[in-house]
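Reviewer comment 2.1 asked that we show a complete input and output for one of the modelled complexes. We chose the MTE case, as it is the one discussed in the main text.
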Amino acid sequence: MLIKSPKSYQLKDHDVTDETVYQGRRTLLKSLGFIGASGLLAHSTNAQAGLFDLFKKDPVKPFKVTHLHYKKASETPQILTPEAKVTSHNNFYEFGAQKSQPAQLAQQFKVDPWQLTISGHCNNPYQLDYDDLFTSFDLEERIYRLRCVETWSMVIPWLGFPLAKLLQKAQPNSRANYVVFETLYDPQQMPGQKNRRLGGGISYPYVEGLRIDEAMNPLTLMSVGLYGKTLPPQNGAPIRLVVPWKYGFKSIKSIVAIKFVEHQPANTWNILIPREYGFYANVNPQVDHPRWSQASERRLTTGGLLARNRIKTLMFNGYSEEVAGLYKGMNLHKYY
Ligand code: MTE
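Response of the prediction step:
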């Protein structure tokens, strides 16, 4: 008999629930009109603020999870990083290099209208506009650990869809060896792009890349929400990447372009400090950052940075089973 063991991110039947998962929150799907249209659907020019306004006006109405899958992960919900922490401790240098700045400076960020272009070596280049981001692919919820190179980590319930779905639709051709991602360039809206000091000295737009097999791996997620809501601007609204076995800087935010290319592309942190940040950036407790150890991490829970919750960092951030095969035979000290 063929026994298929589910991957850690896959849902078993009993994991899918039609129970209210997050009391007091309206589903973003409802806000977008997929279940029961109403006057609430009027789009605000700043859709992000619009959705949060809706939550505020009607904060206690629970929503039913019907086609939104709730994944039972190895982590129990109790150890999720609190939402308030996830949305206030950020790296989004376009809105300032300090952790608290994105939450303060990104609130007016306009995410609707939005255009995401998929192009390059493929037979079917296409574009998605704001609504398409939520409707083109089945959304699911996945609890992923995010490990930042600065040695803090969080556990976050993301909403999104596998990047592979978006890429396959474009029909990449045989020259598509890598995928490049680009963040919006809009210095009028993103003060860190205008002011070099505020923006941490980065040359914008922020760019990232993955090898095509990494991009196609089922773990790699395009996220449009967290904690049952659309993404707050500071977390990369309206759409960002989440690559859970790599250091956080690979998880590029507020993406406007995805392109299939032949050769390994440049990525922002590697351009800035190549000795410290590579292209691969796989979480690896055995390969230290030149200035500090990567053997352990501080899991951000309620206690913040001073809490005594230092834990050992796991190879590939604990996702070895799913991704170690991608790097078989590679020298991970050289390809850091
Ligand atoms: N994407 C853009 N465009 N700009 C950034 O500064 N920071 C990266 C990544 N994506 C960054 C980005 C880094 S260093 C990390 S650790 C994660 O976003 C942080 O994501 P979070 O703020 O949602 O935790």
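Residues 1-75 have pLDDT under 50 and may be disordered. We note this here for comparison with the apo prediction described in Section 3.2.
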